[in-house]
Write a structure and sequence with these properties.
With about 350 residues, this protein is an alpha/beta fold. The chain has one domain: Alpha-Beta Barrel (TIM Barrel), CATH 3.20.20.70. It is built from twelve helices and ten strands. An eight-stranded parallel beta barrel has the order 1-2-3-6-7-8-9-10, surrounded by seven helices. A hairpin with a 7-residue loop joins β4 and β5 (about 110-115). α7 crosses α8 (about 190-210), α9 packs across α10 (about 270-280) and α10 packs antiparallel against α11 (about 295-305). The longest helix is centred in the middle third of the chain and has 21 residues, at about 190-210. The chain is globular, with a radius of gyration of 19 Å. The termini are far apart.
Length: about 350
């Protein structure tokens, strides 16, 4: 048990029937999403869109925390209240993405390393003063047999950085979400994903132990064990759920309070179905299983909005619906029939 109530925050964030909304897209990423609906990615439009999300009525019934981007944690509602204060008043915990993005591991490398350790402690103190109580760092692991990746070097270096980040964050009294994402891009089968995910998680927890990170005060944000998008043989919902749980049970210590999955490019419905199937399992698990979705929660809202003020209500309704459905999935009570209600 730690001295900063980090374990209580981690449990609150991951405990069903709630999960996390990832609204931490970088400016480049949200610009691409705005381009898809022909909306200019101006500072004000980005603020308006985030405000739309955060002001969704009763969102706090299903969302325990929201991960923000550096720009967003400094923005305010149209009434002038900082977003962090607005969310706190709703009982929604404020998180912040603290890595600075991924760069090629070496010159001409097909692999990437996530950076951001330089100046991390100073940034965390600033974010803490701005209202953040938890953080996120994403590492990406690509599978490509043609280029013989991932290498052990890329896995270990990314996991070392994740562990170092987690230690610095805990030392400053915040909860770190560690996100080692094995990407869905590629034509690999589910067994290959299982093997790489297992290797990555084992490396991660070895380095977390090495850095003396308190596992009761972190959250794990992993990919599900799933075939690559280009694979001709896609696994069933039941197989994805069983293989993911099997991999996690072999790799994740019991002290970790919660696992909040990323959607990783799955369709909105499929991400919900997989989470639901895992929570329907009769197995007794030591950790909460919930969600930390970005696109799989936001995409219907973004598409409905189209940058128009008159569309705010239908956009918020779309976010409310997806949040509600994923909330049901944390309890194993989701049904595909609910999509049409």
């Amino acid at each position: 048990m730690n001295d900063n109530n980090l374990d209580k925050i981690a449990v609150t964030l991951s405990k069903p029937p709630k999960g996390i909304l990832a609204a931490d897209e970088s400016t480049n990423t949200i610009t691409k999403r705005f381009d898809s609906i022909n909306v200019d990615s101006s500072f004000e439009n980005r603020r308006r869109y985030r405000e739309l999300l955060f002001k969704t009525h009763d969102l706090n019934k299903f969302i325990s925390g929201i991960i923000l981007y550096d720009e967003t944690i400094r923005q305010s509602t149209s009434e002038g209240m900082p977003f962090s204060e607005f969310l706190k008043d709703l009982g929604i915990l404020v998180g912040i993405k603290v890595d600075t993005g991924a760069l090629p591991l070496t010159s001409n490398s097909h692999e990437k390393i996530t950076e951001g350790l330089d100046g991390l402690a100073k940034r965390i103190e600033e974010y803490k003063n701005l209202g953040a109580v938890f953080t996120k760092w994403r590492a990406i692991i690509d599978i490509d047999d043609k280029n013989s990746i991932p290498s052990d070097y890329a896995i270990d270096l990314n996991c070392f950085n994740l562990a170092r980040y987690a230690k610095v964050v805990q030392d400053h009294g915040l909860v770190p979400i560690v996100e080692p994402e094995v990407l869905m891009e590629g034509n690999h089968n589910i067994q290959k994903c299982y093997n790489i995910t297992s290797k990555t998680l084992k490396s991660l927890f070895n380095y977390l132990k090495f850095h003396d990170v308190d596992l009761s005060g972190i959250l794990l944000k992993p990919n599900m064990v799933i075939a690559g998008k280009g694979c001709s043989e896609q696994a069933s919902i039941e197989e994805v759920a069983s293989q993911t749980i099997k991999c996690l049970k072999e790799s994740v210590p019991d002290q970790v309070p919660g696992i909040v999955f990323l959607s990783g490019g799955q369709s909105n419905e499929l991400a919900t179905q997989h989470l639901n199937q895992m929570n329907k399992s009769s197995e007794t698990l030591s950790w909460n299983l919930s969600f930390s979705y970005g696109r799989a929660l936001q995409q219907p809202a973004l598409t409905s909005w189209q940058g128009e003020s008159e569309n705010i209500k239908i956009s918020q309704d779309a976010l409310f619906k997806r949040s509600n459905l994923n909330s049901s999935a944390t309890l194993g009570k989701y049904s595909i029939d609910l999509e049409n209600i």
